[in-house]
Design a protein that fits this description.
By secondary structure, the protein is an alpha+beta fold. It contains 5 helices and 9 strands; from the N terminus they run βαβαββαββββααβ.
């Protein structure tokens, strides 16, 4: 896969929710294992993965690499029931490295999590609660101000008060520009390393 595409294309991609986690300096297969996948690694197209999902009780995570980051992408949002569980999984993936999670369910529940070496550095909901929390929430405040999620004083910005603000795209932009994370559009068309995770 190429490094083209960034992440902002995910908003408006037609996916019914999505789950993306990226981790630095580990290979895609290791990322899938850390995410809790089981069984053999396959190479599947998006359509092939969806067919398996419709016929079973698993979600297929399809992985790739762009620069220093490996990532996986899945449909419908995170395969966990509660925000705390998502946070725990991202912390586990980040051990010995760093990881970023962005997910959006079909009900527009959205998370952004940044973890380093097993600890949550910063987490927020760009749509309903952009005030960052975590071990070092101030670490991302300059970036959040730059993309418009916070005002110049570091306070949350209301979507009703800023014309043209798209909080979800702003979070993608921050992940692109400040972390260098990209998920090439080809992830939806080309075969990619894939593994199953139980729902």
């Amino acid at each position: 896969m190429t490094d083209s595409g960034g992440l902002q294309w995910l908003d408006g991609s037609g996916l019914e929710g999505h789950w993306l986690i990226a981790a630095r300096n580990i290979d895609p297969s290791e990322l899938l294992r850390r995410a809790g996948c089981v069984g053999e690694e396959m190479h599947l197209s998006w359509a092939e993965a969806e067919k398996i999902e419709m016929e079973s009780e698993v979600t297929l995570l399809r992985a790739g690499r762009s620069g220093d980051w490996s990532f996986f992408l899945a449909s419908y949002g995170a395969v966990v029931e509660h925000g705390a569980e998502i946070d725990a999984r991202v912390r586990e993936i980040s051990r010995g490295t760093e990881a970023v999670e962005i997910s959006q369910t079909t009900n527009f529940d959205i998370h952004f999590i940044y973890a380093v070496d097993g600890e949550t550095v910063c987490t927020f909901d760009p749509l309903t609660d952009p005030a960052p929390t975590g071990r070092e929430p101030e670490r991302l405040i300059p970036s959040m101000i730059r993309v418009g999620l916070l005002d110049e004083h570091g306070e949350p910005v209301s979507i009703d008060d800023v014309e043209g603000l798209d909080p979800v795209k702003a979070a993608y932009r921050m992940a692109e520009e400040d972390f260098g994370i990209a998920a090439p559009r080809e992830i939806l068309t080309e075969r990619a390393p894939s593994m199953a995770i139980r729902r």
